[in-house]
Specification:
D-tyrosyl-trna(Tyr) Deacylase, Chain: A; two-stranded antiparallel sheet; 8 strands; 150 residues; six-stranded mixed sheet; single chain
Length: 150
């Protein structure tokens, strides 16, 4: 499971011109899933994101987490995070999980994040053509891969 986590002042996702999810201060999470991902990956990633200290304290130091800030989260499925670009110019998405595997894991991740943060999580619609808008705060962008837990 791979996530691109962006600290945002605001973010939203629209589908066919209709806003499906919208947040103010918090994180926008692009989530890519492979077939080998498990509930252990979901739990680890959710806890990591919930407790990631990427928000500024009163001294301007990044010492506060999303949980500390009572911040919001918007989760967007993005199979292209597992693109392979080694050969040629057309990315291969062979590592990305098929929808019948990825969709339940995506939904489980949102549920786990809701549990870890104690609040409703905003999201897009799995597999839809989405238009994502964001105001990156910082900018702060962190890439996390559950298969490379550094």
């Amino acid at each position: 499971m791979r996530a691109v986590v962006q600290r945002v002042s605001e973010a939203s996702v629209a589908i066919n011109g209709k806003i499906e999810g919208k947040i103010t201060s918090g994180v926008l999470i692009f989530l890519g899933i492979i077939a080998e991902d498990t509930s252990a990956d979901i739990q680890w990633l959710s806890k990591k994101i919930s407790n990631l200290r990427i928000f500024s304290d009163k001294e301007g130091q990044m010492n506060l987490s999303l949980k500390d800030q009572n911040g919001e989260a918007l989760v967007i499925s993005q199979f292209t995070l597992h693109a392979q670009t080694k050969k040629g110019n057309r990315p291969s998405y062979i590592k990305a999980a098929q929808p019948e595997i990825a969709m339940p894991l995506y939904e489980q991740f949102i549920s786990q994040l809701e549990e870890d943060l104690g609040k409703e999580i905003q999201s897009g619609i799995f597999g839809a053509d989405m238009k994502v808008s964001l105001l990156n705060d910082g900018p702060v962008t962190i890439i996390i891969d559950t298969k490379n837990r550094e």
